[in-house]
Design brief:
Structural class: alpha/beta
Radius of gyration: 22 Å
Strand order of the largest sheet: 4-12-11-10-7-5-6
Strand content: 15-25%
Number of helices: 14
Helix content: 40-55%
Number of strands: 16
Shape: globular
Length: 407
């Protein structure tokens, strides 16, 4: 076996399909987001504006967050020193979990090293807690949810995306006495569409199923205190387990679940992904807690964020560009071809200093390759004008279609 040749073949397949991912070396500047510096492969530097980041509200630069992190690192040092079970639980971790529980109006919360791990570890552990559990999973759930469901060894059913009637059919076909859980998202990040939370909760009540919702792309940005779509729609009390991230709108790093005290205790006690992982550094946890405490009161920041997204969508629609608009803050521009998508991304970076990463298969279906823009409150009129002008010019240069709008 020539292992090196096998690796070459695997990588070449990605190149042949224009799916090879290139890391762009971005040097963020404190207080200057969304502006950054691109460290180019030739050793030179170029100023860029980041339009594809997930620091949706700019909280990664907020003084409240930075001050809390500095204070914690000065007080405690760098790492936590262990797993949560072995010396890695600090006052900062407990404070963050209390903030999260309060945010989602749950009895408890459990912090993980990432939202991916939170999804994977929790969903793969639940069948140990509920023998015979059947998980009903939306077809477009995030890879972390799919992985958790796949690894749990239990039964699974996949329902068509946001298709409540299909979900009902699947629930009706199974033994009413078997434990059930419905796993879905509130905002699906590739198209920016919303999950039918209330309808799914109604089905869960009817069929005695637990509910598991991923609010990763909603926490911080929706609801009176920023707790997500479930808070915005008054449905927090109807959801059994809420998954969220600390690495997007919160602006730091990590993930979590919020649920009943018994549910969190059981997951804490049984999930290998929690038990055997070193806990987050105290400084990271302190920054996340400070960010959430701030976001609970900063409705103006959320309103500004939505305004920026609405302006960008309106201007791109005015140019006839095929964006998908489901009413969320996510702005996908459908190019529809991996070569053109990569070309557009490269040209925007090299020629206009605008960084937006191409999104290709398998993240999205073939034929729907796209550039995905994430406007924030710190993308001002100057940045918006530059982006719209660049897209207008390059769309014409690449002779791409403007006639048919998506969404």
């Amino acid at each position: 076996m020539n292992y090196t040749a096998q690796l070459d073949d695997a990588l070449q397949r990605l190149h042949d399909e224009d799916r090879y991912r290139t890391f762009i070396d971005i040097e963020r500047e404190r207080g200057n987001f969304p502006h950054a510096v691109w460290n180019k492969p030739d050793g030179t530097k170029q100023p860029v504006t980041v339009w594809c980041g997930n620091d949706y509200l700019g909280m990664g630069q907020h003084p409240v967050v930075l001050d809390a992190m500095k204070e914690a690192v000065d007080a405690t040092g760098a790492g936590s020193g262990g797993t949560r079970n072995i010396s890695g639980t600090t006052v900062y971790h407990k404070r963050l979990e209390a903030e999260l529980a309060d945010w989602h109006q749950k009895e408890a919360a459990l912090v993980f090293s990432s939202a991916y791990i939170a999804n994977d570890a929790t969903l793969s552990t639940l069948p140990k807690l509920f023998p015979g559990l059947i998980i009903y999973s939306d077809a477009l759930n995030h890879a972390s949810m799919i992985e958790g469901v796949r690894r749990n060894g239990g039964a699974k059913r996949v329902f068509r995306h946001n298709d409540v009637e299909h979900l009902r059919e699947l629930l009706q076909a199974d033994d009413p006495n078997v434990p059930k859980l419905i796993a879905f998202e509130s905002v699906y990040s590739m198209d920016g569409d919303f999950g039918p939370i209330e309808e799914i909760c109604d089905l869960a009540d009817e069929f005695n199923a637990l509910t598991y919702i991923d609010e990763v792309h909603a926490v911080g940005m929706y609801g009176a205190r920023g707790a997500g779509i479930a808070e915005r729609d008054g449905l927090l009390d109807r959801l059994d387990i809420i998954n969220g991230t600390l690495g997007k709108a919160v602006g730091v790093f990590g993930g979590y679940i919020a649920a009943s005290a018994k549910m969190c205790d059981a997951v804490r006690s049984y999930a290998p992904g929690f038990i055997f992982t070193t806990s987050l550094p105290p400084a990271v946890v302190a920054g996340a807690a400070a960010s959430i405490a701030h976001l609970k009161t900063d409705q103006a920041l959320r309103a500004q964020h939505q305004t920026q997204a609405a302006i960008l969508k309106l201007r791109l629609k005015g140019l006839g560009l095929p964006i998908v608009d489901h009413g969320s803050h996510i702005v996908p521009l459908i190019v529809g071809d991996p070569k053109h998508t990569k070309l557009m991304s490269d040209m925007m970076l090299e020629g206009f200093g605008i960084y937006v990463q191409p999104i290709n298969y398998p993240t999205v279906p073939r034929g729907t390759e796209r550039l995905r823009f994430t406007p924030s409150p710190v993308h001002g009129p100057r940045e918006m004008d530059a982006l719209v002008g660049a897209l207008d010019e390059l769309w014409a240069h690449c002779a791409l279609n403007r006639a048919e709008l998506a969404g």
